[in-house]
């Protein structure tokens, strides 16, 4: 057990998956957690095991009034919020042509706007404290893209842009931001929590492998251990200089550098054309 004072974490989407695993890991480490979920009864066992160190609260991140009320209650009852883990989110499977407009709006409402609402509600608390750490749950899909996951990837790319910008805006207040980019972890993400578009037969051959991969068939076979992800996040929060981006899992750590090298190589190949589009420079003496 650490000799430091316990931190207070606010975790969204704490009832299952990575959110649940991180919540349990943090509690075992001696910190306190405001654990939120749409169905907080799923957290009752944590309250029985950890008593008043865990505060389960109902929260739907798509409800602005609920977000404001829950953050205010959390700050009042615990006295502070040291770490926010924006974890609430889900996957949308479907080709770009297959997904409906409503499915896309719902995806962004939770994954992007929900995270933004909670962040905006927590920031005044952290600014008053003069400290805090925002952990934004992105994905390796926020670094690269995958067929049949275009809208999910788009939501994570949006979250990455917001987080990178925010890190520059809040550093002066003593607030740190880390974008967490997990690879494949053993959760229900590709099974019960996945929303799927209606398949178009025109894409049967193109997307067959990806559809199967996101069918839930491999939900218990992914290499990533959610509890070890929780331990990694504790290490990041403890770090004197935490990273802006944190890859989790061997597959993410292997893939991301190669993706960036490919981009650099392509930019270099087309550098000459890129430099043809500015106005002509005027000679210094003219």
Task: Summarize the topology.
Blueprint: E1 8-11, H1 17-28, E2 32-37, H2 44-50, E3 54-58, H3 64-78, E4 83-86, E5 92-93, H4 101-129, E6 132-137, H5 150-170, E7 175-182, E8 195-196, H6 204-213, H7 226-238, E9 245-248, H8 250-269, H9 271-274
Parallel strand pairs: 1-2, 1-4, 2-3, 4-6, 5-8, 6-7, 7-9
Helix pairs in contact: 1-7, 3-4, 4-5
Q: Summarize the main sheet.
A: 7 strands, parallel
The name CATH uses for the topology is: Rossmann fold
Please state the CA-atom Rg, rounded to the nearest Å. 21 Å
Strand content: 5-15%
Protein architecture, described:
This protein is of the alpha/beta class and about 290 residues long. The protein has a single domain (about 10-270), classed as Rossmann fold, CATH 3.40.50.720. Helices cover about 45% and strands about 15% of the residues. It has helices at about 15-30, 45-50, 65-80, 100-130, 150-170, 205-215, 225-240, 250-270, 270-275; strands at about 10, 30-35, 55-60, 85, 90-95, 130-135, 175-180, 195, 245-250. The chain has a seven-stranded parallel beta sheet with strand order 3-2-1-4-6-7-9, with helices on both faces. Strands 5-8 form a two-stranded parallel sheet. β1, α1 and β2 form a beta-alpha-beta unit. The N and C termini lie far apart (about 70 Å).
